[in-house]
Specification:
2 domains; 10 helices; 269 residues; Arc Repressor Mutant, subunit A; single chain; 4-stranded antiparallel sheet; 6-stranded antiparallel sheet
């Protein structure tokens, strides 16, 4: 897989996957504003799936778990302009803005498809990627400020995301894990997102589930895979990535170990 990235600053990049798809289970430390030049992306969350194509613009808030699948499309590479909206930068932006209400974060992805103001802002960055001497930081900062201002103009509730700076607090571990077990994330990150240190996460998990996180996650992912194979009639190659496995052969081995039959054998049932 040929991947290329050009940076104006560490917060603005042109990302390109030339040949085949790229899959990642992610949670971002910054809000990510993405404009599609070409290609296609599927973003899978616990309760919904989004598909974004050429011309689409979306915002992924920080600290949200998702599986991202990037594909070339119609003979064109997967190519996007990505802008990081960091907490540090947003705090500076909001320091002189008086908000009427305390921001209440909403855990969703925001779509701004084909909005002319936002598309013009993102498209105006393209010429900067070809400058050999780079772009002054103050000029790049102005472009990010412009994007934030446009977001606030076209979505009056976006302050609930951009102006919320609190770190994750301690939340219901059972509810969180039942919704997010298919995302292949380090246990340290799962602990952080539930407001726990790694040691506290492991201790609370064992108390609530009476097993280790690794064993529970494997069992839950295989149960979901079994449902997809038997009820939805999907093929193993369509299932293993979406349920949290990184390798088809490892998925097949684990599946047979739990159910006594290879996943391919279920196709004829």
């Amino acid at each position: 897989m040929e991947y290329q990235a050009k940076y104006i600053t560490p917060d603005i990049k042109l990302s390109c996957y030339e040949d085949k798809f790229f899959k990642s289970d992610i949670t971002f430390d910054d809000h990510m504003l993405v404009w599609f030049i070409s290609g296609e992306t599927r973003i899978v969350q616990y309760d919904t799936t989004f598909t974004f194509k050429k011309g689409d613009i979306f915002l992924i808030p920080r600290n949200q778990l998702a599986t991202v699948l990037n594909y070339p499309s119609n003979g064109e590479p997967h190519k996007t302009v990505v802008m990081h909206l960091s907490v540090e930068r947003l705090k500076k932006f909001y320091q002189n803005i008086e908000l009427k209400n305390k921001p209440i974060p909403q855990h969703k992805i925001y779509s701004f498809n084909n909005h002319p103001l936002l598309e013009s802002c993102m498209a105006s960055l393209i010429p900067y990627f070809d400058l050999k001497d780079g772009v002054p930081e103050d000029l790049a900062s102005l472009k990010i400020t412009e994007a934030i201002s446009i977001l606030r103009e076209i979505d009056k509730n976006i302050d609930n995301v951009l102006a919320h700076f609190d770190e994750p607090g301690k939340i219901d571990l059972i509810h969180f894990m039942e919704r997010n077990f298919m995302f292949n994330m380090p246990l340290e990150k799962l602990g952080y997102l539930t407001g726990r240190s790694l040691s506290t996460f492991n201790r609370d998990f064992k108390k609530l589930f009476n097993t280790t996180p690794q064993k529970w996650l494997t069992r839950k992912r295989l149960e979901l895979a079994y449902y997809q194979l038997t009820e939805k009639k999907k093929k193993p190659i369509e299932v293993y990535l979406e349920v949290g496995f990184e390798d088809l052969s490892h998925f097949s081995y684990a599946f047979k170990n739990q159910y006594g039959v290879a996943p391919t054998k279920l196709l004829s049932v």
